[in-house]
Amino acid sequence: MTEQVTTGTLVTTGTDVTRMRELNALSIVRALRGNPPSTVTELATRTGLSRPGTDVIVQGLVADGWLTVVEPDGSSVVGRPARRYRFNAGAGHVIGVDVGAHKVLAMLADLDGTVTWTTRLPVDPGADPAARLAVADAAVDECLAATGLRPEDIWAITVGVTGPVDASGRTTLFTPLPGWASVNPAEHLAARFSCPVQVENDCKLAALAERWQGAARDADDIVYLLAGMRTGAGLIIDGTLRRGYGGAAGEIGALRAVRWLTAPSHLENCASLPAGIDTDDAAAWVFNAARSGDKAARTAVRRYTRDLAVGTAALVLTLDPQVVVLGGGFSRSADLILGPLARELGRTCLRVPEIRASTLGAESVALGALRLALDEVDARLFGVGLPAPVAPRA
Amino acid sequence: MTEQVTTGTLVTTGTDVTRMRELNALSIVRALRGNPPSTVTELATRTGLSRPGTDVIVQGLVADGWLTVVEPDGSSVVGRPARRYRFNAGAGHVIGVDVGAHKVLAMLADLDGTVTWTTRLPVDPGADPAARLAVADAAVDECLAATGLRPEDIWAITVGVTGPVDASGRTTLFTPLPGWASVNPAEHLAARFSCPVQVENDCKLAALAERWQGAARDADDIVYLLAGMRTGAGLIIDGTLRRGYGGAAGEIGALRAVRWLTAPSHLENCASLPAGIDTDDAAAWVFNAARSGDKAARTAVRRYTRDLAVGTAALVLTLDPQVVVLGGGFSRSADLILGPLARELGRTCLRVPEIRASTLGAESVALGALRLALDEVDARLFGVGLPAPVAPRA
DNA sequence: ACTCTTTTGTAAAGAGCGCAGCATTATTCC
DNA sequence: GGAATAATGCTGCGCTCTTTACAAAAGAGT
């Protein structure tokens, strides 16, 4: 008889009785994360486990450094005051880096996502990849030095870059950064850090940030628009960031009929623009002028918004999201864009989603990088199961 | 102290030791589904459980009717021949219904997805909703009558309709069927069936079918194109059908710049079309003429394909799928469409996905409905946990 | 100051489950 | 017919959770 073992789909592994305990430990950790310090009784009701059982597991988690004890303060309750337990967010840390054209922004956060340190270093827009990576290294080093952490204390790193990123973390062509085609920052950082290092497109990270701490906290289906001198999009569907098979999801700007590549030129080439103004400040000037009633400026903004709306409509009709978040540099002038954008979408879309302005500003990409790094940590912890925990501060 | 119970995110419930057993039972069922009848030893190695433990669980599953025993036949192996166990696919059944303009197609399948009965009934294209639902009822009744099953034996039903469907299963406006706006077939069927009844857009179901048994079996990121007198799309991302927040994902044809609504008119209005030909046969005639070299017909096909490509490019750039599947009535002429479509996409897209022709033909929507119904059954079984199983054929 | 109430902390008994190991059984090969 | 092979079935062991019970700690009332 032939040995017909189909290993095509991975079959869920059977649950051992010791694995069950791990699951319950994870269940308790999950019940604690994001909540204020809790008593054993609270955790027991939340997880559905019995109180003694919960207690045993909690003791183990404390011994392993995952939880810390909060001795009861003099609160006025009837009955014996309870010890409270807090998730030890300082057990591990993650780093998010935003490698932009003019600057590198690195942020360090604990497992709760609380940002502990932020470093911002300028970069020459014309710097070659090696120099740019060196600045990124310096920013990361400063994060470590300022907080007294060692590379082993970092559990995940995410780097945000412009342009599409393939599954292996390599940047592909079509990037505005000089010489940045086929650079692999992940490999570069892997030399010093043994933790997982991810590289991701900046728009996608900004979308994550908006869902985490920004304007789309309540939504599971989000189209994030990066509106600035560069135009891009990041997509979150069913609560998860979608990259596409080749990592190029959202790059609708490449379609000629979608005028995203040239949309900002309406602002740069505005007729009423003063002569000596810098390219980087031109857009801001035009928005201000439009706000004060300048005819040519208003036309420029209208044309820009109309071009922006074409691609947005394609995204909205493809995905039917709950929310469209307008981010990027131009989101500071959202008051001028939101209305016309909504009108344009109303003309073309079956169901017009809410349109909101970003609330995060320039830190959104780095924040999203933190979020992705935290997701990576969570996936490893909750997916495979609590591995021998890195005893924190031994 | 204030009672701060955050019930915002549902916390995973703790695992009881009896729940563990359910999980292991599910694990064994999963290891058996889609595989040929297996011995206990095979199941033990596949699930990672011990052989005695596996045996106990298997006995229980047999007693509950989930598994059936296959006594050893005279196969030539050394050693004691093993009993084999087979998933009892007949323990439950699902029904998929395709409510089209000209016909209603109902299919009945067991839990393995093996189609047991198919009924096809004609409908007058102008029939009102009540008459159309009556035909659907008749088709479902015939499935039951022919197989001798009762309504209680059906574990899930999915109905495919044209046009967008919202989360509650109501059809919305923008449907080509007469009077079909805001009809709720789910409610209608719920009167006779107590099982879950889903209503879904036909394009989306066809996409599911292609991934299940059609041209995209190997892909997790799929754009399905319905190319016929009506044009539509269905999206599968990360292996899951995506509906969008309002259920209108993929309805990019509503964008005016995307000429999907009018694309087929290039074929209908072809100059070389003979006078007396029926509207429904016009397209087929034009494709045949183009194949034999008719100039006007070739132009019509080229224009049609170009219009089809605009929307397809938007979908591809938004999602970056692995595969585009060309389905619908025109997929019979895929030899004429695939090449030009690929060329158009090559001009506009960063990464051109594979383009394949559908292999399922007219049954794709009903098949996809079956798949969705089976998914619903799986979700209830594997998600919540094996409920008191419906003792099959008591 | 004492007792009562309420809630927490902790220990012991009981049950269910999976695993390892050994004896038993059924079949083929020599 | 005997040896080799592989599946089946049974028993004891360890692990985990739950239930039950009791001791400890703090405030409220008399």
What does this protein look like?
- Two copies of one chain form a homodimer.
- Chain A has a five-stranded mixed beta sheet. Chain A has a five-stranded mixed beta sheet with strand order 10-9-8-11-12, sandwiched between helices. A two-stranded antiparallel ribbon of chain A has the order 1-2.
- The first copy, chain A, is 39% helix and 17% strand.
- Chain A has helices spanning 17-32, 40-47, 51-63, 129-147, 185-190, 202-213, 265-268, 279-291, 295-319, 334-348, 364-384; strands spanning 67-70, 84-87, 93-99, 103-110, 115-122, 154-161, 197-201, 222-227, 231-237, 240-241, 323-327, 354-357.
- Chain A is an alpha/beta fold and 394 residues long.
- Chain A folds into three domains: 17-71 and 82-87, Arc Repressor Mutant, subunit A; 91-207 and 364-384, ATPase, nucleotide binding domain (Nucleotidyltransferase, domain 5, 2-Layer Sandwich); 218-359, Nucleotidyltransferase, domain 5 (2-Layer Sandwich).
- Chain A contains eleven helices and twelve strands.
- At the A-B interface, α1, α2 and α9 of A face α1, α2 and α9 of B.
- Chain B binds a DNA duplex (30 and 30 nucleotides) through α1 and α3.
Main attributes of the structure:
homodimer, 394 residues, alpha/beta, Arc Repressor Mutant, subunit A, Nucleotidyltransferase, domain 5, 3 domains, DNA-binding
